[in-house]
Amino acid sequence: MRRYLAVRLGGALVSLALVVGLGFLLFRVIPGDPVVTMTRGRPVTAGQLAELRARLGVDEPLGEQFADYVAAAARGDLGTSYVYGRPVLDLVGERLWPTVLLVGTSTVLAAVLGLWLGVRGAWRHGSRFDRVSTGVALAQWAMPTFWLGMLLSMATGDLFPSGGMRYPGTPPDFVSQAVDVAHHMVLPCLTLVAVVYAQYLLVMRTSLLEQAHAEYLTTARAKGLREDLVRRRHAVPNALLPAVTLVFLHLGLVVSGAITVETVFSWPGLGLLTYEALAGPDLPLLQGAFVVLAGAVVATNLLADVCLRLLDPRVRAV
């Protein structure tokens, strides 16, 4: 187990190092000059533009910029935002909780709904329930997220808020604030669940169909176990293993937020912050957000590997 953890941890560190390098290079190819964008509409001279470039460090050779970026990242400093003039880590920290609340809740609901429908559909393979549930899930999965969000917003009218996280005049007590946030969260959460749950349904359905005619299930039936017990005690635990990997992958993506949904509903999370940074382009903010988001995915993948080794004896035998 120690050797397995050491290998997986080493691989995660290598992946994180590649993410840091990629995060720097990726956003250097974005078209647009951040200095020109920041001074747009203002009477500035060429000398003032050059001074601002020097102050931001974008006039240095690419190699020097990369070396400064890596050295600062090693110290835990992801830079200062061009637009906000604040440390990137502070901005990311402020937007982290709204994103975790929205996307985390959506992920849990989508996983529960998708796994339940996948189990029911596979156990009734070919039935009307199976065909309808799979068809509806695939249709919603194919919908662009931003388009579905706008449709839901128009369909519900004034029933649910279509923007923001809370009303300014909400009383400061916990219950009032929680109800207000939950009210604002209905439409973006419903949009994410409607699009994402199909992945859990399809993975669980396929995995359970592969187990349906296994010999150990025939043995369980021969012992006189009811179909419900055969499914719950024997088939589902074995079929859950691929779904565990998918759940952990989406948990890593929880931190990344949903750029389109957060933008459509003006949800103040990391997705909206990334969208605003792209308009600059605010290079330090984009780089910092990318490193944090990719780091979360790397960490959850490492956790998934450890959990699969604990859950599946076949992995321990390798």
From TrEMBL:
CDD domains named in the record: TM_PBP2
Annotated localization: Cell membrane
Alphabetical keyword list: Cell membrane, Membrane, Transmembrane, Transmembrane helix, Transport
Annotated ABC transmembrane type-1 domain residues: 96-304
Coiled coil (residue ranges): none
UniProt KW Transmembrane keyword: yes
Transport found in the keyword field: yes
Family under the similarity heading: Belongs to the binding-protein-dependent transport system permease family.
PANTHER family membership: OLIGOPEPTIDE TRANSPORT SYSTEM PERMEASE PROTEIN
Protein name per UniProt: Peptide/nickel transport system permease protein
Organism: Saccharothrix algeriensis
Top-level taxonomy: Bacteria, Bacillati, Actinomycetota, Actinomycetes, Pseudonocardiales
